[in-house]
């Protein structure tokens, strides 16, 4: 396959600039999964209701040590609660606890802080392509606090 890529790409690369050639070769030579790992998905939090406000941005990022993570940005805020968790969910644009519970999810761990930048590693076993949102969930009471669509 690499030989075929070189055969097709070589004449095109000779006719382009060095920066374009590098980009073209990276796009042609890498499988789609590797390219997707370099890209990030982003979204904006919204709270479940007036009693559970949430705001700020989130993105899926490639971690320096390898793997992927969920990064809550510096403008992230959520009302505090007991046993708040960060979930990577298959629910697309969930607006309530029922939608979140009906979809699959991966629990990324305890929310470290109710505001500010924080990063949560996504387990290698998780299928990130199925992830549609990041959810803040109260495990103690089974309450939806907010979500951000990332797909």
What can you tell me about this protein's structure?
This protein has helices at residues 2-14, 18-29, 32-38, 97-102; strands at residues 42-44, 46-47, 54-55, 57-62, 68-72, 77-78, 84-89, 105-110, 118-122, 133-138, 143-149. Helix content is 25%, strand content 33%. Residues 1-39 have low confidence and may be disordered. The protein is of the alpha+beta class and 151 residues long. The chain has a five-stranded antiparallel β-sheet. Helix 1 runs antiparallel to helix 2. It contains four helices and eleven strands. Keywords: Signal. Residues 1-36 form the signal peptide. Pfam families: DM13.
Q: How would you write the strand order of the largest sheet?
A: 2-11-10-7-8
Shape: globular
Q: How many discrete structural domains?
A: 2
Major sheet details: 5 strands, antiparallel
Structural class: alpha+beta
pLDDT averaged over residues: 79
Cα separation of the termini: 31 Å
Q: Beta fraction of the residues?
A: 25-35%
In sequence order, what are the helices and strands, one letter per element?
HHHEEEEEEEHEEEE
What is the β-strand count?
A: 11
Instruction: Supply the number of helical segments.
Output: 4
Low confidence ranges: 1-39
| Alpha-carbon Rg, integer | 19 Å
Which percent range fits the helix content?
25-40%
